[in-house]
Amino acid sequence: MPEFSRPLRVAMIGHGFMGAAHSQGWRVAPRVFDLASSPVMQVIVGRNSPAVAAAAAKWGWAEHSVDWRDVVERDDIDVVDIVTPGNSHAEIAVAALAAGKHVLCEKPLANSVEEAIVMADASRCAAERGIFSMVGFTYRRVPAIAFARELVREGKLGDLRQVRAEYLQDWLVDPEALLTWRMKKEFAGSGALGDIGAHAIDLAQFVTGDPIEAVSGILRTFVSERPVLEAPHGLSGTASGQRGEVTVDDLALFTGRFRSGALGSFEASRMRTGRKNALRLEISGSLGSISFDLERQNSLQFYDATARSTTRGFTEILVTEPGHPYLSGWWPAGHMLGYDHSFSNQVFDFVSAIDAGKQPRPSFDEGLQVQRVLAAVDESSDSGSAWISTIPVPAFA
Ligand code: SOE
Fold first, then answer.
1. Residue 231: pLDDT above 90?
2. Which of 95, 247, 351, 393 shows the greatest Cβ crowding within 10 Å of its Cβ?
């Protein structure tokens, strides 16, 4: 810890895939960026004592616990980082904010609009006391995405007309893939829609600065039964020999209408054979277009329609210059960032906002806006793809 910085003691609740990624962020950010206060990886919490002890040892947390309620009440904890399945986000976040802890909560914010409203209300109340909360839409911290937003804000794309946002993976193509919590509605809220479609929705709204006002969509589950796990809560483990019901979508498709009048098409699939982690965004306007693909995350394609017609074309910009967002803390130009760097960038933004006494973004209100879009897509699918309003949150912009 730098000599004069204040310790900011963190408790992380949960220790799965996102627990590993967030741990990396907490550990690396203070070594890369200048922060007024220094995160301390104090305690990690999980239900299974040997498993959480192993996670603490592996990722470098000072202590471990099986009781999140006890931990969020502790006087020596300043920040609660929630990386549990969505069904527990609301209860933990509301308790932590009431106990005066800053909260970082994984996406989607909750499993329903009702829960997200309670969380956003608690977050606004806490902010009045200088206690802040933020949603973990980590891909906002990919430098090329943050740079794309800058280009849109500078007017380089002109009037926005069309957005195409896709998040495509293929880990559920195999019908024998195990039935984990991500395939059960009671834990995850939805399937591809909330797990990865939420990122596409957030990025589309973040880069354009324009909320989605209405959607028409369809959801589909292609494999309705999968091998059940032996673990009691169905969170992880090995196959038990039985099969259980998949209660969420494998594929979500929808069109969306933005407040500006631009139209968007969205795809979220965990069954798109051959696509591993293809989060793609293409935005086109009267003066230009941008195109991004997370599988090529260090670059952004930019088409400048104002350039001479004979030299015009999509240009690949390597987003690794010191002047690009987040890059000043990292490596010399061209030395490429990867998946985990965004989690350090996220910690940098979160802690910097807390230090400055400002609301970090994305706020819980922004998380609520995404939740409204998810719920509207679900409702639209149930009603034969009718157009459903999302009632954008006024505080969105
Ligand atoms: C976390 O942000 C997350 O959405 C995971 O839940 C997805 O499964 C992952 O593939 C992308 O990141």
1. no
2. 351
